[in-house]
Structures are given as C-alpha cells and as structure tokens.
# Entry
Amino acid sequence: MQIANLDMCSGCGACVAVCPKNAIDFKEDRFGQKFPKIDQNKCIDCHLCEKTCPINHEFFIPKLELTKCYALQGRNKGHVEGCSSGGVATIIARHIIEQGGYVFGCKFDENMDLNYVECSTLDELELIKGSKYVQSNLTQCYVQIKKRLVQGKKVLVIGLPCQIAGVKGYLKKDYENLFLIDLICHGTPPVRYLKEHVERLGYAKIENIKFREKKGFILTLFDNKKSKIFSVRSACDEYYSGFLNGIIYRENCYKCPYANPYRVSDITLGDFWGLDKETLVKKYEGAISVGLVHTEKGAAIFEEICDQIVYEERKIEEALEENGQLREPMKPDEHDRRVFLQYYPVLGFDRAFRKTKLYKKKVLVSKCKNCIVKTRVGKNLKELWRKIK
Ligand SMILES: Cc1cc2nc3c(=O)[nH]c(=O)nc-3n(C[C@H](O)[C@H](O)[C@H](O)COP(=O)(O)OP(=O)(O)OC[C@H]3O[C@@H](n4cnc5c(N)ncnc54)[C@H](O)[C@@H]3O)c2cc1C
Ligand code: SF4
Ligand code: SF4
Ligand code: SF4
# Structure
C-alpha cells in the first residue's frame, strides 16, 4: 500500500500521526530527507493514511478576491523583540493565549531537532519566536491539536503551508475554534545538514540557534547559559548561503504546490519584500511584514488585534511582485543542486557544499573579505572608507 506519490511528500507527518496501528515511521534517505515508511506487518489496510495525506486532496482554498493584503508590524517593542519580521505571528499568538487558548509552534530541542510544542503561557511563547530555516517536525502534535479543539479551546497553529495542509488533512473538518497561520516559504533543508554544519563549526552541544537579527540575516549559536558563542553573516556561511540561494532544500520544495497566492490558512505572514516605503501612510520602525487575510476567521482575529499593530492596506500585486514564493516554487541553480546531491552522501554537508559554484565564487570571497576586515589594516581601511563616505 502506498500513502501517496512520495516525490511530493513534504514530511508533514500527518500520516504517521493518524495511523491507528503505529505502522508508519519516518526513515531517512541518503540525502537526509525523511519519508514515511509503512511496516506491512502492522498495517491493516484501513487507508486512513492515504485519506489524510494532503497530497491526495484539494482543500477549500479561499478565492483571491476575498484576500486582503496589509503591511504590518507589532507595536509593542518588548513583545516583538526576538521576532524575525514584524512580529505579528507572536502578537496573534499572545492574543490566543490571553484568551485561555493554545498555540503550536516550533523550538530546538537538546539534539538540535526542531520540534513543535504546545504553548499555553506567554513565557512558553518566547521559546518559539523567530524563523528557523530548517525543517520542523509537527508529527507529535497532531493528536494534541485535535484534543484541544474537541475540548473547545481556541487553538492557533503557526507553520509552513505544507504543515498547515497536514493539519487540515488530519482533522478532515473545520473547527470554529481553530486558527491557522502559514508563513510564506521558499523551502526547508533537512535538519541533518544544519546539525552537520554546526558540528563542523566546532560546536557539539548548543542550546539555541537564531537566524535573524536586527542587522539582518545572521546565524547565531547560543550555549546553555543563553550566551552567544558564534555568529556569522549569511553570505559567509555555507549553510545559510545554501539555504538563501535554494540549493539545499528537500526535493519536493522545488515543486511546492503551496507557492502561490491561493493559501491554505486564515492568515499568511511573510516579509514585505518590494514594499514601496515612500508611499506608506503610517510610521514603522524596523522590519515590516506582509499579512494576507483570507477568511472570515482571519478577518475576525485581525480585527481583535488591530490596536496592537501598525498597519495599512496595500494592493496584493505589490506583495506578489517581489515575493517570488507567492507566485511559484524556488528554482535552484541546477548545476549547484546536482553537484551538492552528488557529493553529499560521500562527503557530508560542508565538503559537498564547497564543491558548488556558489561557494567558490561567492561564499569563499565573502569569507576572505571578512577576514581582511577583521585585521588591523582592514579595520583602518574600513574606518577611512567610513570617513570618506
Ligand atoms: C523555512 C522558512 C522559510 C521562509 N521563507 C520566506 C520567504 O521566502 N519569504 C517571506 O516573505 N517570508 C519567509 N518566511 C517567513 C518569515 O521568515 C517570517 O517567519 C514571517 O514573516 C513571520 O514573521 P514574524 O516576525 O511575524 O514571526 P515571529 O513572531 O518571529 O514567529 C515566527 C513563527 O514561525 C514559526 N516557525 C519558525 N520557524 C519555523 C519552521 N522552520 N517551521 C515551522 N514554523 C516555524 C515559529 O514557531 C513562530 O511561531 C520563511 C519562514 C521560514 C520558517
Ligand atoms: S493503511 Fe491504515 S494501518 Fe496501514 S499504514 Fe495506513 S493508516 Fe496505518
Ligand atoms: S501525510 Fe505528509 S508525511 Fe505523510 S506522505 Fe503525505 S505529505 Fe508525506
Ligand atoms: S517549500 Fe512548500 S513543501 Fe517545502 S517546506 Fe515550504 S511549504 Fe513545505
């Protein structure tokens, strides 16, 4: 029995969670990608996994004419501190918790796996803040999501579109008390790449990893005392460059069925790339997000939190123009993708990535520039350049 066409499998884990016989487990292939595998000795051919898998279904997706597009940002600096973009995911999550509800988001565990957790307090929300640019695991939370819904509690799930589709497939019906936020997504690398890279950097045990800072796309590692132990700009880092340039994703991401304006959630959030800031009416400080409100439920929750955000309506075309993943899946540089996959099973993450053109022509050059800037001569030149400018 076959759950679905596994070429399209996102690893959302809904089939694993739904199986009444615990007959499905994830197995890693030689590229570190996890796929569900059925233990035929346990399987009773009930086909529940097949009926659950979002690849096999078309969900009710709102008409685009109903979608409203906003530029938006959280007002309270304390609340959005540590968020990746405008912090609106966190503002909505706080609102749900304050009403006695539950929020499902992801955080790194002690093995550097990115797992979903249930949050019922504002303190717990702090742990899930921020974008982590690696595949997260929702499998162990489906049952809990349904349990809270049946209890009549408000539930918010924040995730990538394929995960939100997994939640819909698992639940098979809408609940009035369920709120879904999806993030605009260009793809996720298997977590094994990040683990191998961090180990290669010389850190066996770390407590947390952040991918964004006020200054931009920076990879930062923290120890168990929450101190920064390593920090590098994306352009100088193998993992981060591979991620941003779309070389190292799970294979299905390159044909992602969710990379378009017809979304599976109540509200879509992302960075407002291409926003014409000159024409903004309100005053914003720092990162501005795009928010696409698709459903009545989305509009209702937006209404409830609107005094906590700075926002204004924009034309959806403005968001579609520059945010490629609202139009189509990411296209990798085919040469680099091929080279990476060819070498990865033999050489591991860093050494395989160093075979790519991207590494040789850009990352290596950025690393060298960075080294020069760090020397005394480099610092003096930088200071001189600053004065001339
Ligand atoms: C893998 C990935 C790719 C993305 N690609 C794009 C893109 O191409 N274009 C774009 O405009 N925006 C992209 N984003 C979204 C963007 O980075 C912000 O997450 C979004 O703008 C919300 O910002 P915020 O400040 O409101 O979120 P915050 O308040 O910081 O909250 C972030 C929320 O995202 C959840 N989250 C973080 N990492 C993951 C993950 N790996 N899997 C599932 N949930 C996660 C957290 O649990 C938390 O609830 C991407 C995000 C991720 C995680
Ligand atoms: S058919 Fe039923 S028992 Fe078999 S793997 Fe799928 S869900 Fe499990
Ligand atoms: S339910 Fe999710 S993990 Fe299972 S086969 Fe479908 S896409 Fe893959
Ligand atoms: S690109 Fe698509 S399939 Fe890949 S992680 Fe993002 S939403 Fe999921």
